[in-house]
Write a structure and sequence with these properties.
Length: 181
């Protein structure tokens, strides 16, 4: 397995990344054309777009990022690993690679959002506003939500966006410092 930068001349990998988005994020893209556009947008200036490729040359994971806050913060978007390759360390390797590149570019913090659109946590399906901070402190995983993966690789919950995807469908904001000051 190797991790390389995705570029505009890699049509096969752009197509595979779009298919991976459609397979993994059922609520986000309605058509393969929309997913392909998302992949191509990741190739622009002030972006990072890296893929993991297995020994047979198939794309098995993709991570992207957007520069913000004058380069001090990079938003990780997206991170996706093929279903057949999950649980084998590919996501962790992609995150480590991404963090290294962010630090090389002078970034200090990586920020990400991990939506709960299917009530996979204790904060899904409820009105968070009455006890926002308590809900954030006491969030628990009910159905294999990915926020715990991010915690395992060092990310902290730094906020919630209630109703980000409709009532009771919040976004969990997480961050990690990747460069010591």
């Amino acid at each position: 397995m190797k991790i390389i930068s995705l570029s505009f001349d890699m049509d096969q990998y752009i197509e595979q990344a779009a298919e991976l988005l459609m397979e993994s994020f059922e609520h986000s893209w309605n058509t393969i054309e929309e997913a392909t556009l998302e992949v191509k947008e990741s190739l622009g200036d002030d972006r990072i777009s890296r893929i993991s490729v297995n020994d047979q040359g198939d794309l098995i994971g993709w991570i992207g990022g957007v520069r913000s806050y004058d380069g001090n913060v990079w938003e990780m978007h997206p991170l996706v690993v093929s279903k057949d390759w999950r649980g084998k360390g590919i996501g962790r390797l992609l995150v480590e690679d991404f963090e290294s590149i962010v630090a090389e570019k002078g970034g200090i913090t990586v920020l990400l959002g991990t939506d709960d659109e299917d009530n996979k946590t204790t904060i899904g399906g409820i009105d968070l506003y009455p006890d926002l901070y308590e809900n954030m402190q006491n969030v628990r995983n009910l159905k294999n939500h990915p926020y715990e993966f991010y915690q395992k690789v060092g990310y902290k919950i730094v906020g919630l966006i209630p109703d980000a995807n409709g009532f009771g469908r919040p976004d969990i904001l997480m961050a990690k410092r990747v460069k010591e000051i």
